[in-house]
Amino acid sequence: MTPAEPLCKEENVHRVLRLFSHLRTLPWLACFLATPAVTQEKFSVIVEAGAYDRHDVVVAFKLPPEVRSARTLRRGQETIPLQVAKDGTGMFKVTDLGRGKSISYDFVVRDDQAPARGSQLRSRQQDSRIQFAFTSTAQAQATPQPLLEYQAEAGPLPRADIKPIFKRGGYLHPIRTLSGRLVTDDYAPNHLHHHGVWWAWTKTKFDGREPDFWNMGEAKGRVEYLGMDSTWEGPVHAGLRARHRFVDLTAAEPVVALSETWTVTVFGPAGRTAWIFELESEQTCTTEQPLSLPQYHYGGLGVRGNRAWDGKDHTYFLTSEGETDRIKAHATRARWCDMSGEVDGQRVGIAILGHPLNFRSPQPMRVHPTEPFFCFAPQQAGDMLLRPGEIYRSRYRFVVHDGPPDRVDLDRLWNDFASPPVARVARMDVRQK
Questions:
Q1: What is the number of domains present in the chain?
Q2: Vertex 363, ends 382 and 278: CA angle to 5°?
Q3: I want to staple 280 with a disulfide (CB 3.0 to 4.6 A). Which of 122, 253, 263, 350 is the partner?
Q4: The CA-based dihedral angle spanning residues 316, 317, 322, 324, taken in that order and rounded to the nearest 10 degrees
């Protein structure tokens, strides 16, 4: 064969094979060829602020099974604690996110991952109480800051002159600010049936009778603690899920008319001077009889302020509509209402925010003319009926603060509650050599 003659197909193949064999002896190329590209899935969570600026907002979302073991998120060099519930709901806190913007965090899924530094919400049982406190893991040997307590079973009466009929459990007290100042009262001298944050219906009709679950001294009805389903704690939130029952005492034998489940979630600090918790109540009829709630000026969620605020000049009210006159505020509707006063020489308070999905939202309010008492009272707007087989669900957010209320800040926190930022999990295929 002369050089000008074309190679046959077989000889071409043999030459290519010999060249390939020679190239494989080069170390770098042999390593390259011996290591196939591997496709791995990378997960991240993308948070969209929506229509509002967000500051210290807790974000909730569902995690796919592949990342449910994650307990930390990362953005650049920043690590953020991630708390994952048994149902796969994840929660973490976004510090700042402007309106209309989005931000992305990567999941850290490793067995040896170091926990992110930050706050810790604690829950502890002490006798018949569940105590919630906040501590910062950034401080060595930090002392937990008490926030609130849930009274489970009815505890001992605080004074000998109180009749046993007034004993009650299933409420929140004491509730304190971050500076440790008390914002609630229990067994108030002029209203022994007022207990921090509690729930009861007043004017009712049930199976031809008229039990009163609010005014316990009349022995027509009461609300009892029934049991604790769960408690939890973590870097983002702590909480409990407990059961109550509304007992009709006007029948020949006591009858349970209504069952209730409370879910209390403590989120801790929101800024430097306030902290947040939420209460969700779910009520269902326990018999085939409905519970009728005729129109009345109070009943439902009640909040009793510090005893030092008693008297018409010692409590300050502010509603989301800007009303500060407690007489004018009564029987109006508002998205939120703040109640405050002085404790140990400093102004402190508690704001109650109603969720827009609550029945008759924004709900009418009972604002007491002379006492530190507030109640969201949907009965004011007309008769109500709780029917068998249905769930009456209500959600409220509470902002406990040092200093006077900040209307702009409370509006922001209500927006976070009513229209939270949206989070979604994104996955990406990453090719690695």
A1: 2
A2: 135
A3: 263
A4: -60
- Clarify whether residues 366 and 426 are in a common domain: no
| Residue 314 · residue 372 · CB < 8 Å | yes
Residue pair 54/42 in contact (Cβ under 8 Å)? The answer is no
For 225, other C-beta atoms within 10 Å of its C-beta total: 20
Classify the phi-psi angles of 207: left when phi > 0, otherwise alpha if psi is within -120 to 50, otherwise beta: left
Buried b (16+ CB within 10 A) or exposed e, 102-139: ebebbbbeeeeeeebebbbbbbeeeeebbbbbbbbeee
Q: For the chain, what is the radius of gyration of the CA atoms?
A: 30
Question: Backbone phi, then psi, for 298, in 5-degree steps?
Answer: -155, 160
Cα 273 to Cα 306: distance, rounded to the nearest angstrom: 18
Tell me: do 246 and 320 sit in the same domain: yes
Average pLDDT over residues 178-207: 97
Average pLDDT across the chain, whole number: 90
Which two structure tokens, joined as six digits, stand for 319? 């509603």
Residue 12 lies in a domain: no
Tokens, residue 173 = 């007290």
**How many C-beta atoms lie closer than 10 Å to residue 425's C-beta?**
16
pTM over cut 0.70: yes
Same domain (yes/no): 60, 140: no
**Are residues 109 and 147 located together in one domain of the fold?**
no
Alpha-carbon span 332 to 417, nearest angstrom: 21
- Residue span of the structural domain in which 47 resides: 39-116+422-432
- The CATH number of whichever domain residue 322 belongs to comes to 2.70.98
Both 305 and 179 in one domain: the answer is: yes
**Three-state secondary-structure class, residue 417:** helix
Where does 51-195 show beta strands of DSSP type E?
A: 54-62, 72-75, 78-81, 83-84, 89-97, 102-108, 119-126, 129-136, 145-151, 171-175, 186-188, 191-195
For residues 73 and 200, state if they share a domain. no
Residue 52 belongs to some domain of the structure: yes
243 in the same domain as 368: yes
Q: Encode pLDDT of 91-137 as tens digits.
A: 999 999 999 999 999 999 865 555 555 569 999 999 999 999 999 76
Nearest to 260 by CA among 285, 239, 278, 243: 243
Same-domain status, 358 and 389: yes
Q: Distance from CA of residue 229 to its chain's centroid?
A: 17
Helix (H, G, I), strand (E, B) or coil at 132: strand
Q: Is 158 helix (H, G, I), strand (E, B) or coil?
A: coil
Q: Is 9 within a domain?
A: no
- Phi/psi class of residue 328: alpha, beta or left (left: φ > 0; alpha: ψ in -120 to 50)? alpha
- What percent of the chain clears pLDDT 90, i.e. is strictly above it? 82
